């Protein structure tokens, strides 16, 4: 049987400049090819007599007698028109008619045929259109997806025809599945039914026979016809997957289909469409040689610097370049180009102009290019036949990579950035918290208001919008002054998760990838054997340094985490287990009960780093804060890490403890994150570390003795003080000489509030007395203690107003058991 393939091939030279979204779609179609369309099948080989007999009985007939009479006339006209076309089968005649080339303007083709036979088309064309749909549903012919996606067929009529004649049970199940999913609009379900009907019309068969490639081919055809990506694609894919279609090897969701995973070295280099084949092959071999020692993110970065920033730029300006031995003038021009980039500047008059600015990471490209030349020269000694012909002097000298001055400039920029953002951090915290409370209050008030009813909350007066049925539980409101419609549930979700991101980042100082990998399993607890006290810990999964670490959870952080868990839980109390996509490694992670997840069109999806950055940008806009240039102040997730370390060290936390908390392997990195730190303190602390290390045993990894373990347990027992508990790390002495009222590491006990109030009143009285007697030397110290007392009273008040929820944290035995199972 002859098969017509529907794959669309794209030359590599064109793919190099392709839009990333379209490139991912084409790559997905190569991995999941669509079903090929056969030239002939039993249905299209029917004779005119067999076809007329088939279409004259159910399910192709209409119940209304008058409509059925017109329908029969329409079928006769369609069959007569097809028989006038050359070909042996109905499909051959359809293709020979040229109707598909007309696209959505196919009606004039048949209208012209009617006029040539003296038939008026005024009343016949609507009848012909319905009859053509019946002929398609009977599988006599299969139009192309391009013709169908262009709107050539009335999709509502096609869905009803396919439901009656092709797969009634399948369409009924698909409709029921769509209705059972929350947060999915009825319009998305209708669009899914239309897409299913289009695929069956073009490919034949039933809904359960649809493949992943068919779905991708339809999406591309619709995007081409409508000049945009249509909505509801994820819903359609998910419904087919739950229906049991797409095949056993199909990914669970459309995102897994489009994110193709890790590329090979050939594919990484071919992204840039290099014309010189020998150099292209050399770069592929070089990446393949370096691949075992690099993670995928580093390999991808290496291919970018060598393939795009180096050789693609050389080829663009010097097309005759065919090797690594380049003329000095070519190299100097290349260095000048990568050192700067164009930046669009808007002047006071609103006009745009382009200016050259320094590219901050251009030395990374120089480093990779120098490594390429030096590695080839070294490998040529071991394998001269393979690498010898490419040996050439490195165009990048060692002194060009001297970056002490660059590091000092970067440190100065980061310090200035931290000093600018640390003082206004409380404003951001208050703003996101108030937004969360206001959004929740408005949503709650809207729930109790009827459609069209005016309600007020959080200083706002809105009108509950009147919306049609099938909005999947969404709550809409309108501003009576502007008429703008707002999705209150969406606003509440954004406000809540923005608050959660800010609170967790500022309380832990973890990286963005570590934040997104936090799961319900990350919360563990340890019970002291002597006192029975529970010590909550936060387990940070290995990320950048491949080192796992445990952070002590403060009461404030515990309250935030408990609120997040309550938000993410199902009504059954379980946190949904989902998969997340690692954009750096281009790999899907194992399913886990992630804390930072939300529902999108009824599907539980993990947050991405881009989503977090977008929420932070919007939160900063709401604060109205600006930087030194007057532009809106920007916070990145990594800014919170620098702010955390700076604030912790300024509050008295030893830098080597901050190093452990931050997960740095070198204390110099920690001190680099610290914005302002006196040189004398650094020198003194380095001397202190040297003395401590000289007293340590030489073994770095050993089993602790019973005395050491008892000392560790005793640390947690000795945390109890008269006003609460001390949160200092194990092995660190009290840094405030037991002046607990001033110490930021004190976690006040709510039962000691009356005593703290008494201490505060006593301090106020002593300050008044010192001012009266002129004891100026004592006033400053008393004011510091007064500020500490007020801060502790405020912490107790915040804890009392918050909701305490059982986190369901596993203990150490459960964690150890899970790790053993994973290793096994």
Can you tag this structure with a few keywords?
single chain; 824 residues; alpha+beta; 5 domains; 3-stranded antiparallel β-sheet; 34 helices; disordered N terminus; disordered C terminus
Textual characterization of the structure:
By secondary structure, this protein is an alpha+beta fold. The protein folds into 5 domains: 136 residues, no CATH class; 104 residues; 131 residues, no CATH class; 189 residues, hpI Integrase, Chain A, CATH 1.10.443; 116 residues, no CATH class. Helix content is 54%, strand content 8%. It is built from 34 helices and 18 strands. The strands form 7 sheets. Strands 5-6-7-8 form a 4-stranded antiparallel beta sheet. Strands 9-10-11 form a 3-stranded antiparallel beta sheet, with no helix packed on it. Strands 16-17-18 form a 3-stranded antiparallel beta sheet. The N terminus and C terminus are likely disordered.
Average pLDDT over all residues: 83
Instruction: Give the class-level CATH name of the largest domain.
Output: Mainly Alpha
**Helix-residue proportion:** 40-55%
| Major pleated sheet | 4 strands, antiparallel
Question: Number of domains in the coordinates?
Answer: 5
Uncertain spans, ≥5 residues at pLDDT below 50? 1-19, 815-824
Short description:
By secondary structure, the protein is α+β, with helices and mostly antiparallel strands. The protein contains 34 helices and 18 strands.
SSE layout and pairings?
Layout: E1 3-4, H1 12-16, H2 20-31, E2 37-38, H3 48-55, H4 65-83, H5 90-96, H6 107-116, H7 124-137, H8 145-149, H9 155-165, H10 168-180, H11 186-203, H12 212-226, H13 233-243, H14 254-258, H15 265-270, H16 277-290, H17 296-317, H18 328-339, E3 340-346, E4 352-358, H19 362-382, H20 384-387, H21 404-421, H22 425-447, E5 454-457, E6 460-464, E7 476-478, E8 485-487, H23 488-508, H24 512-516, E9 523-527, E10 534-540, E11 549-552, H25 555-568, E12 581-582, E13 587-588, E14 597-600, E15 603-606, H26 609-623, H27 637-650, H28 655-662, H29 667-673, H30 679-695, H31 706-717, E16 720-721, E17 724-726, E18 746-748, H32 753-773, H33 776-801, H34 812-823
